[in-house]
Write a structure and sequence with these properties.
The structure is a single chain. With 82 residues, the protein is mostly helical. The chain has two helices and no strands. The two termini are 22 Å apart. It has two domains: 39 residues; 41 residues. The chain is extended, with a radius of gyration of 17 Å.
């Protein structure tokens, strides 16, 4: 189910992409500015002393692993975690 060719990765990534799209549209409507992806803004240019680009990458990786662990635990348990 969670294999590379399984249905879960595509569904999870699709849902995250849908959420990202809606949030981007809402941000544009609220601020009147476009998404700054093509203006030279990258992870390295948005770092401060505590959240470096390397820390952000590791936080994202741990979040992805946590999501997979939660899905696997609920699959094995046949129900919600809590």
């Amino acid at each position: 189910m969670l294999a590379f060719s399984g249905p879960a990765p595509e569904i999870i990534n699709g849902r995250l992409a849908m959420t990202g799209f809606v949030v981007a549209i809402e941000a544009e409507l609220a601020s009147g500015e476009d998404v700054p992806l093509f203006k030279g803004v990258n992870v390295a240019s948005k770092t401060d002393r505590f959240m470096t680009s390397n820390a952000k990458l590791w936080n994202g990786r741990f979040a992805m692993l946590g999501l997979v662990a939660l899905a696997f635990t609920e699959f094995v348990k046949s129900g919600a975690l809590v």
